[in-house]
Amino acid sequence: MSTPQSVAAEEYLPRDTADVVRTVRDSRTRVESLTIRGGEPIDDGLSLPDQRTVVSLRRMNSVLDINLGKRTVRVQAGAKLSDIDRRLGAHGLGLPIVGDHRDITAGGFASVGGVSTASHKYGMFIDRIVDLEYVDPDGRIGTCGRAHHSERFHRILGAGGRAGIITALTLDTVDIDKDHTWLTTEADRFLDFDSFVEHAYAETVRPGNAVLQVGRWVDTAPLKVSRPVGTGHVQLGTVRFGQWSSLYPTTPTRSLRARREVGTRTRKSLGVIASAAGGRAGTPVRNAAAGALMFAPKVLTLRDAEYLADTVISSSERGPAYRVAVFAPLSRYTSVFYRLHDLFAGHRERTGCFTVISAMTYGVRSKQLRAEAAAHGLPAEDHGLITFTCRLRPTALPSELLRDIVSGIDEICQSEQALRYDSAE
């Protein structure tokens, strides 16, 4: 059995559950707490250097078993969902819920709940977990699941590693060939926020037979460009638009397949260009990259659709940002959406702390989320996830302003009976 490998004083790379046990037990007398990472750390430009002891599960990345009879898959916690899905594809199976980028791990997604553009149909990732293995804070191995130790099971899921380190999971799968399941996009576009929110609410409440659904709104701050002395400024680069996309099963024609290939290459190229376009000069390019995601291809495969955001957004939205995600009860969805937007837009207008304010939203029909809401004394109803990403101006978000923003979000959640979603892995 292997021993925990330390690549630096603060990081451990276990290869199996026994390694995790030894790491936890050895660390109890030396460090106050362990930080758990499912994969490689992500630098968003806003985080402070992590001085704590880190346990990275990226070497615990094996698919342990595929049970075709039960249609389940057993994996180590550090396995990437995209890799698991590819393995399942050889057997005509797939994961019903995956994240929107290819580096999300099974344990990381489980620790935060896990949502996707298919959550209106399949719920959250934790709704699809059959059972799991974990190591508790004292270094003891335990197992729990839907049918045994269910209270402990629910306590560990979505706890962000605070209730124990998830080391292995058994997941539900569905019969699907994601590389040959073709979808057609029905897109509605909007130039005003009111119409977008109204439409998003209607589609979230009544998704019909949509396989995937997602709404996106982009609102950029005007870019001031100086004119010659005495002539003032001109404003450029303002973009305000939204799109709601519902994707349905279809049979593609040869011409539509060709259009899909051209569109895929174009978006990838634009994302690469956008990632290198820094400063004010790069603003139009980054806006164009955001627009490329809005104007998604008419026809694409299910696998392409699940990772569409990873093609452009991960390249075009680099740099520091403030992000918040909220589960809004459907009965209060529009109110939560308006109030969050007004909060961020108001701070941008008064302080100039934000540049681009963007939002993403879709429906979530989850037994786990309804149960969590009920446990907090909130209505046990379906929800809409609303995620805001606010790009930061350099050094424009002092701590006192950040406290005001956080306080405003907390007040909205409390008064609207909404739940914060901590999606950081």
CATH fold-level topology of the largest domain: Vanillyl-alcohol Oxidase, Chain A, domain 3
Number of continuous helical runs: 13
Share in β-strands: 25-35%
Largest sheet: 8 strands, antiparallel
The SS-based structural class is: alpha+beta
Q: Number of folding domains?
A: 2
Describe the structure.
The protein has 2 domains: 6-175, 2-Layer Sandwich (Uridine Diphospho-n-acetylenolpyruvylglucosamine Reductase, domain 3), CATH 3.30.465.10; 182-420, 3-Layer(aba) Sandwich (Vanillyl-alcohol Oxidase, Chain A, domain 3). Helix 7 runs antiparallel to helix 8, helix 8 runs antiparallel to helix 10 (308-316) and helix 11 runs antiparallel to helix 13. The longest helix is centred in the middle third of the chain and has 23 residues, at 254-276. 39% of the residues are buried. By secondary structure, it is of the alpha+beta class. The two termini are 28 Å apart. The protein is globular. It has helices spanning 17-27, 81-89, 106-112, 119-122, 150-156, 193-205, 254-276, 283-294, 302-306, 308-316, 333-351, 367-375, 399-416, and strands at residues 5-8, 11-13, 34-37, 53-56, 63-67, 72-76, 93-94, 129-135, 141-145, 165-172, 174-175, 182-190, 212-219, 223-226, 233-236, 240-249, 299-301, 321-329, 354-364, 383-392, 419-420. It has an 8-stranded antiparallel beta sheet. A 5-stranded antiparallel beta sheet has the order 5-6-10-8-9.
